[in-house]
Amino acid sequence: MPEELVEEILGSINLHRTFDRGAPHVVINANKVLSSQVVEGLEIEPEELPDGVRARLRVTGGTKIKQPVHLCFGMLPERGIQKILLDVEIEEEAEVSFMAHCTFPNAVDIQHLMEAEIRVGRNARYSYFERHWHSDEGMVRVVPVARVKLAEGARFSTEFELLKGRVGIIDIDYHTDCQARSSAEMKARIFGRQDDRIKIKESASLEGEASRAVLITHIAVRDEAVAEINNEIIARAAYSRGHVDCKEIIQGNGVARAVPVVEVHHPKAHVTHEAAIGSVDSKQLQTLMARGLSEDEAVDLIIEGLLS
Amino acid sequence: MAILELKDVSFRANSTGILNGLSLEIWEGYVHAVVGPNGAGKSTLANVIMGLPDYRQHQGDILFEGQSIKHLNVDERARLGITLGWQEPARFEGLKVSQFILASARDKNREEVDRVLELVGLEPVRYRNRAVDKTLSGGERKRIELASILAMKPRLVMLDEPDSGVDIEAIERIFEAIAHLKQGGTTVLLITHSARVLEKADHAFLICSGMLVDKGETARILEYFSGKCLPCPHKNVPDLNSLRKTGGENA
Ligand SMILES: Nc1ncnc2c1ncn2[C@@H]1O[C@H](COP(=O)(O)OP(=O)(O)OP(=O)(O)O)[C@@H](O)[C@H]1O
Ligand SMILES: [Mg+2]
Q1: How many domains does chain B have?
Q2: Which of A203, B53, B68, B143 gives A232 a disulfide partner, CB atoms 3.0 to 4.6 angstroms apart?
Q3: Which of B10, B22, B34, B43 best tests ligand 1's pocket when mutated (most atoms within 8 Å of CB)?
Q4: What is the helix, strand, coil percentage profile of chain A, to 5?
Q5: pLDDT under 50 in chain B at which residues?
Q6: Does ligand 1 come within 6 angstroms of the Cβ of B43?
Q7: ipTM reported for the complex, 2 dp
Q8: Residue range(s) defining the domain that contains residue B83
């Protein structure tokens, strides 16, 4: 029974043929852990909750995990709430990368709530890539909240991608505190259609000398979709550097609002921002339509390129 | 047989007549050329035939295989097999050459992408994964656009200034690709003011000031264009009386 569910979840993200069961991974459906595999230096302690899963993830000091750790959060039922509470500790000098897939193939009314506490130790490296696969109809509400603390020299990068299927409602709130010489890169790429609602708040606080943060948000909205981006960098230390980049593409009746905030408390800190809101170029559209693509297909392809 | 027929087509922009009562027939299976001085209305003619949004308000009718296509959008015309290669091709930030070609391809596979890139003289391994953006030279973009047209296998293609911004060697590859299109049964309409492109056509139309001045065998039109049009001081005001005397068969 769990075997079939694993197959169904992996199938919905096109990984059923290539997924390596021997590689480190966790596959979750609703509030059940269906399959997991650890490697030396990686500890995963999941705990079932009535409406989700709480998990502690730890990479022990100095461990460098070569293969990406695959996390798959699925919700096969049509309705329900899935809470994922993560407590992540990457100890000193350790290295790990996570590849996360969130899939809701049958969603009619689903809420996916993620709360993560992430601590990246001295000189440790942590990267996290999260791809969402939603259905073309139905309603998903995704609320990821992350509080990240980077010790001296730590490197953290996270990327959130939602390009396939309807967004529904998404409300991202990530905050990173950066100690000396640490670096944070937070990226989000989202394509909203119909009456999707996208809200993003990424923020970084550059507390230590020579710490760095880059916040990149590339959003496209078409039809009646609405996006609001509030990205913020606060620099408090000498030689800290930050950059906020918001790029939004609007088509049809889509609405986009970008508010980059930079706040600098030290004369030797340097923070920049750029925000651009544009639309799909009519010549690109006409070129693809002159090859036989419908207007919708052409817009999707152009936006996919712009968000890539 | 005519694959495309224009019946008394006129098009105005800001109350200026750009196309003025054009009638012509494009025979299936041949390479035709529309030649004329700068500003004659050549690109406008191609845009009107393609049905681009800013060029839909025209007088007269356009028939494709005997049926009026006047009411059809760009993509509907494209699905009948009509396409256009732009004088200045568009750039697509972030879109890979292979994605761009596959979007128009009838056979949606890697082999097809490589085949058409080779036909336009671009090495597949070097170009497949590049973006169709400003990092490509003008000539490369022109050839990638032509590759996408080869993959589409259209019934009728209009190529607007196929040699503009392209170096000598690459032009030969473009000419080969045009010959390939013809062999595959595609009717080609070259739009040009260059003699070397005109030479590749089986048949040519000479237009000036949005009017058809002459049509016929390429060599004769070329001679007329080089001798009379290039030195002409009237700048898009054809001298219709003198044309009649010199025997332009359609003026
Ligand atoms: N949308 C427009 N509004 C006003 N004038 C226009 C418009 N489009 C074209 N024209 C004018 O119509 C005339 C014909 O333009 P067109 O681009 O069709 O010429 P062409 O023969 O392709 O010239 P070239 O050889 O320079 O490419 C020009 O004088 C041009 O300025
Ligand atoms: Mg032109």
Answers
A1: 1
A2: A203
A3: B43
A4: 10, 60, 30
A5: 244-251
A6: yes
A7: 0.93
A8: 2-246
